[in-house]
Structures are given as structure tokens and as C-alpha cells.
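1st attempt posting a full record on here, be nice pls
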Amino acid sequence: MPYQENNMLAQILDKAKQQLEVNLPFVLYRKPNSTMVHAGYQSTSTVFNVNSFDEKGFVFAPFNSDSPIVLLKFDEFLEETYESVAVDSELEIDYPSSTEGKEMHIELVKKAISKIENTNFKKVVVSRKIELNCTKNPFLLFSSLLQKYASAFCYLWYHPKVGMWLGATPEILLKLENKRLTTMSLAGTKSYEKDKEVIWGTKELVEQNLVTEYITNALENKVDKLLYSKVESIRAGNLWHLRTKLTADIKDESLKSILQVLHPTPAVCGMPKEETKSFILEEENYKRAYYTGYLGELNFKQENLRTTRRKNTENNAYKSLKTVSELYVNLRCMQLKDAKAIIYVGGGITKDSDPEKEWKETVNKSKTMLFILNTV
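the predicted structure (as C-alpha cells):
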């Protein structure tokens, strides 16, 4: 059944359509497991950049950390709740069975394996893009994302001088509340099969452990009280992933310095970081742009209510403001450009990788966005 725009979001969507008509920036987004859609609108077409990370706004950062980071500065901000409609997550549709680009991607995977066998590479993430004709309404696509992927960070982002992107990412890069840091390592992928327990192999377990190890080492001298959870299996759409949550208190470090060591993580780049990043930039047959970059709220102010109960006095409510940055890795995304949808997919390569299976993993990951394109 085709998706329709949610009437409860009429004000937010109408304002975004007006922005699009006059080529002005906006972003619509919803955080995981929430029914609140946030919308920010910029009144000029100026491209603002992040430099010190003391700025406030919505960040849109590329994979290549040497490239400029775009910041939307909101002149108007709206929030609306919407009614979540149950969607059959096991709904099967006919996806394009094209093998276009298969030979090229398998050769890239083989190059990556050779690098791991003959150099100091432990893991490297390689990716590809899929281009499809698309004239679908972007606001319908966004409404579809909201209903289909309730546990993901869903967004529609537009800047006339940069482009239009949308996605449903399962991975948070970091959340920083004052000095309290939360992040995660997310790696390893298996297809979801109804009524079947996911069984992880050595390749996936090693891959996930490498990401956790990297984040732990990168943060070691920058944080106190670093804690991490047990490895858990989480489902994102038609895929399973392995995840470890990490929390810590940052010392006297700036957000900029934390991001410099975290991005790009081995989950989207590799280990060692600089060498594998160079391999990706040189060997992938296209530019990732904002795929595997990050996006989200930078230095938002949130009101914190605290109620205390004291003897012989009425309850007293105290208000305080906290500064929050909440950034997500730009996975399961696509770019809308020139009547085309460009879908980006990739996978982590280790010494245990099988090229054919790695190709299949990218096919499975592409279904997140293909589902949306085929049901609107």
C-alpha cells in the first residue's frame, strides 16, 4: 500500500515545501523510538561551516574529515508529534536484481583483502553507489521512513548549494550531555530471517571487536569512567548488527577533539584510520560525499527539571539548562539529484571476508532505501 503524508505533520511539511520552492535550506528529523518530528528552517541560502564546534545548529559532515562541515542555522524551529502506524516489517517486495557494478565491487573487496594480508591493515570498509531513476516526492519518502524504521534516526535534509539527502541510520556517533559522553560500536551484519535466531560467525565478531577496541583506545586519555556494555544483537529493518554501548565522562577535552579521534570510526573507515582512509579515497570508484559522514544536533540547549522533596516543605522544582550534542553516522541513506536516487552501501572487510558474500551484504543493505522507493 502506498504511503501517504501524515496529516498530523501538516504544518512542518508545508513549511518545508515552501522552503524547497524558494530554494532555502531545511531539515526534518526524528530520533529513534520517538513520535516527535523536529524541523529546522534557515532563512538564507548561505552555506555556514563548523570550525570550533562551539557553534549551534544542525551539522551535516562528510566522510572525508578534511572537507568542510555544513551547519544549518535555524531561524525557525518547529516540533510536532505524529501517529505511528504499524508497518509489516516482513513485507516482501520485488527489488531490482541488477548485478550492475558487481564485478567492480568484488575486485575492490579483493584489493582490500590483499591489503590486509600484506600490510598493517586490520580492517577496511569499502562501498559502492546505486543510481536509480526517481521522481518520487521527497516528503512522501520521509513519511515512509518514519513508519517503516521506528528505531532509526530518520531525516530529510536540504541545502540548495549542497543537495538533498534522506536516510534512516541505526548508529549514533556520539551524544554529549554537558560532560557525559555516550557512543557505540556497531559492526557485523546478518540478514534478518523470520523466526530464526541470528548466528554470528568469526568474521562478524572480529569486525565488531575491532571497532570497540579502537573507540576504547581512542578515548582512553580523554575520558574518565569509561564503561561498555556486553555485545548485543540489534535489528535494523531487515538486518541484524552487533552493538556495544560505551559511556564516559570527558575530561577537559573539547567536542572537536573528541570527534577528531572518533570520526571516521573503523565501522565506516578501517584500522589504522589514516591509512585505510587513504585507500578508500584512492580506490573507491566514486566520492562518498556525506555517506558515512555524520549529522545531527550541535550544542542544543535543553531544559532539565529536577524535583526535590524536603521535610516540612512543599515539593520544589528546579530548572537547569544542559547543552546537548547528538550526532548520528550517515548510513542507510540516499541522495536525490537530477531525477535520480543515489543509494550508498558498503561493508567492513577483514582477513576472513569472502568477496561474494560481501557483495551480497551490500545488496541486503540497499533494501533499506529500496523498500522506501518501492512503497511510495
